[in-house]
Design goal:
The chain has 166 residues and is α+β, with helices and mostly antiparallel strands. The protein has five helices and seven strands. The strands form three sheets. Strands 3-5-6 form a three-stranded antiparallel beta sheet. A two-stranded antiparallel sheet has the order 1-2. Strands 4-7 form a two-stranded antiparallel ribbon.
């Protein structure tokens, strides 16, 4: 499927930066307000909106990858993801550990190494993921209690669908 059951930006203006990547883009306004603002005004709306987000993520994660990979994104494999976590762990050891006392360093080591050793953490089918699905990137119409759009696809990639639930 090439479409989601929600609006996403349809770029009409792309201004390239010096590095060739877009420096600025423009698209027609997508109706709605940020989910975090909508929930602040009506906390009881959360269950209905959560169900809609689940359906949107299901459609996103089932998007046909060959179409996505060939036209939009490089394919990142499970092994690529594991390598990126190993690289991040090395950076954390170099830059963060010196700021921690020894007991906290030991706790961090146990958490990181347990995560990296567990095979189940790296048994997932690669899917299209948004990569930065915060409440500020989900638009909704509070009067209709309806999700209307998903913004900020800059971090979209192929990876573990669980990323979108973090």
């Amino acid at each position: 499927s090439r479409s989601l059951p929600v609006s996403v930006p349809q770029f009409e203006l792309i201004v390239p930066g010096q590095d060739g990547r877009p420096a600025f883009v423009g698209y027609p306004r997508i109706h709605g307000i940020a989910l975090d603002s909508a929930l602040a005004g009506n906390p009881g709306a959360g269950a209905r909106l959560a169900e809609q987000i689940g359906k949107i993520l299901t459609a996103l994660h089932q998007t046909t990858l060959p179409w996505v990979v060939h036209r939009l994104l490089p394919l990142r494999t499970v092994l690529d993801w594991k390598r990126s976590y190993l690289d991040l762990y090395q950076i954390v050891r170099q830059q963060v550990y010196p700021l921690l006392d020894p007991p906290r360093q030991r706790i961090a080591t146990i958490l990181w190494e347990t995560f990296l050793r567990k095979r189940d953490h790296f048994r997932f089918e690669i899917a299209l993921v948004h990569g930065d699905l915060g409440a500020e990137h989900i638009l909704c119409d509070p009067a209709r209690n309806q999700i209307t759009g998903i913004l900020d696809w800059e971090d979209a990639c192929t990876g573990d669908p669980a990323l979108d639930f973090v």
